[in-house]
Structures are given as C-alpha cells and as structure tokens.
Write a structure and sequence with these properties.
216 residues; alpha+beta; Jelly Rolls; Arc Repressor Mutant, subunit A; five-stranded antiparallel sheet; three-stranded antiparallel sheet; 8 helices; 46% helix
Amino acid sequence: MKTQNPIHKKKLKAAYKTIFEAKFINEILVVSEYTQLKKGELLIDIGDEMTHIPLLLSGVVKIIRKEKKKELSLYYLKKGDTCAISFANCINNKKSIFKGVVEEDVEIFLLPVNKIDEWLIKYDSWRYYIIDSYHFRLLEMVGSIDNLAFLKMKDRVLNYLIGKLHTTNLTSVDVTHQEIANDLNTSRVVVTRLLKELEQEGEILMKRHKIEVLEK
C-alpha cells in the first residue's frame, strides 16, 4: 500500500473529480505512484516496457513517433489526460512504439498495469474515460495525417503554432525554429522562411524564442 501526501491527494481530486467518482480516486491514491518530471525529460521512450498508465495533474507531454532517425509530433497530453496508446500496449504486453517528451514540467500519477482490467469492470467512469481518450487521440492523429496529406507546409506551421497555444493556454509560443522543424519533419531553413512569410502576412509576430499568433 502506498501512502500519498495530502497535497498530492488534493491535486488528484482537483484534476479528476469531475471524471472519476470519489471511491475510484481513493483507490488510485492507494496503488499509484506520484512523480514529477522536468522539461526535456522522457515520460516514456520507444521500446520501453509498459508497466504503468500516466494520469497528468499538470504540465504538457509531447507524443512523438520516430522512424529512421526522423521524428513526427503526433499530439500533446495535458492536465486531465492519459496516453491511450500506453493503455493498449499495457493490455497487450507490448513495448512502446512512441516517445513522450515533457514540454512543460509535469506532475503525474502512474497507475499500475495490473489494475487496468479490474478497473474496467469495476468502474464505469474509468471505462468511459479510456474510450473517450481513444476517440480523442484517434481524431488528433487523423488530423495529423490530414495535415501531412492535404496542407501546404506554411499552413502546417501555422496550425502547429495554434495547436501549441491551445495546449499551453498561453498567449505566445516559446519555441525555436529548429524545434518546429523537428516536430514537422522538415528543415530549419524552410521553417524560418515560412515564419517570415506568415509574419509579413500578419498571421504571427516573431520575438526572441517566442512567437505570437495574431487574432484577425
């Protein structure tokens, strides 16, 4: 049995009280592990054994697919989210095929995989939460595929910036041109050129390591 700090308990209830019933939250507190990760650290890496499911209390995690030394950003996890793909890998005893990188310092509860099946039967709220998570992540990945297939790179860059703003709830994006290039699987030179075009068109305002998306 794990003993949780009262502050951690308060944070878990604040983040998930509208999603899970009180009884389930108390059970999570008994069997889960609380941890913190700093920006740039890995929540999970490709090839890792899946032993826990993350529940985010705060911060942002970027989920990345990597193939032949190239990376593609798929979606972001934030407060109230879990990684549905991690759930699938845990159930099937598969290793991770994605990487989760901390974008903003996070607080997480790690739920043991050996409780997942039991909770699916025991708690309707957990079952609905997992189904909703799958649905939402599927829509996000379809959106990523649509961006790749149908949008010009300039539109992809603008959508990327708008998406990061929605994820962080900030007024500007703290990101370098190289980071954008890495996430969109293109070159820094291309990103720099397109950002200048977007600024000239009045879509964005560039500052040092920060980019503001302008309202129209």
